[in-house]
Specification:
Blueprint lengths: L4 H5 L4 H25 L4 H26 L1 H6 L1 H22 L5 H8 L2 H13 L5 H18 L4 H7 L3 H23 L5 H21 L12 H27 L1 H6 L4 H13 L5 H19 L12
Helix pairs in contact: 2-12, 2-14, 3-5, 3-11, 3-12, 5-10, 5-11, 6-10, 6-14, 7-10, 8-15
Length: 311
């Protein structure tokens, strides 16, 4: 007997799951690009050039819709500017800087903490309930990260501190998590592509002073850097954004966020293939425990504290 139309309406087609999957594939590729860029170009320069490329490609199709929607955009301008600072300037530049002193696999595992950090910041900023998943998942993920950065020795991680590159990546992930929380809080009625364009404009303005102050030779465009900038601007900015936005439309944000757990797996695979990185047991164990913690945060939504009284 065939399923009813009502049931089919709530069952996404298989093709819908391909959007977030390939978005994460591109995101994993961007982590590899970050590592390759670390020895080729300044983090400030590649962030700046990436934004320039995005705006050059988007301007021909975005300027008219932006002008028609200028009243709404003006009303939300400072929010869009702050969003651009968090998601496109801070997150990207900190990620590129982190790539100078940590591995691609570590970067991906820390980036996969974004759903957990988002849940924690939602409690702080939005006043959402503390869930069993946040507490249990947070403890597991914290232990997994310590095991990872200590290369299998949690005591060593606690005594020597977090590696600078891993700390920078954690700050980048926190910046992106705060961006997501603020978007949820503000509920701006600006179309996604228009918001991305304005955020890129704002991020470019934030990066401009640092770009101008770069020493000679730190922002050279050559055969080595141009492909990296091209991937960062086209692949991981425009195409990735399209795939993720389409995935959220068809599956919803919660289902899509689960795909972030694939980021360390795909990044580790790409790192072994293209960077010749070695895979160690502490990557598998520490990364695995961290991802289990993130998954618990995403799936265990029962409030930790229940009210025993009527309001």
């Amino acid at each position: 007997m065939s399923a009813s139309p009502a049931a089919n309406a709530h069952t996404p087609a298989f093709s819908a799951f391909l959007y977030p999957f390939f978005a994460i594939v591109l995101w994993a590729g961007n982590v590899i690009v970050s590592k390759l860029a670390a020895s080729a170009i300044s983090p400030t320069a590649i962030t700046f050039y990436r934004l320039v490329l995005v705006l050059l490609l988007m301007s021909p199709v975005m300027l008219k819709p932006l002008w028609r929607n200028r009243v709404t955009i003006r009303r939300h301008l400072w929010k869009l500017a702050l969003s651009g600072l968090l998601a496109m300037a801070l997150f990207q530049s900190l990620s590129y800087r982190a790539a100078e002193s940590t591995t691609a696999t570590n970067m991906a595992i820390v980036t996969a903490l974004i759903p957990l950090l988002t849940a924690i910041l939602s409690v702080i900023v939005l006043g959402e309930a503390i869930t069993v998943g946040i507490v249990g998942g947070g403890i597991l993920s914290f232990g997994g990260i310590l095991y990872l950065v200590g290369q299998g020795n949690i005591a060593a991680a606690l005594s020597s501190g977090v590696h600078p590159g891993d700390l920078l990546m954690l700050l980048a992930a926190a910046s992106y998590a705060l961006y997501g929380v603020l978007l949820k809080h503000w509920k701006m009625n600006v179309p996604a592509w228009q918001a991305i364009y304005i955020q890129a404009c704002a991020a470019l303005l934030f990066m401009l002073p640092m770009f101008v102050m770069l020493p000679p030779g730190a922002a050279e465009l050559d055969a080595r850097t141009l492909p990296l900038i091209g991937y960062a601007g086209i692949g991981s900015s425009i195409i990735l954004s399209f795939l993720w936005i389409e995935g959220v439309k068809q599956l919803g944000p919660n289902r899509c966020s689960i795909f972030i757990n694939l980021l360390p797996v795909l990044t580790a695979l790409f790192a072994v293939i293209w960077l010749r990185d070695a895979m160690h047991a502490y990557h598998v164990i520490g990364g695995g425990v961290t991802l289990v913690g993130v998954l618990l945060t995403q799936t265990m939504q029962k409030p930790l504290f229940t009210r025993r009284w009527q309001a």
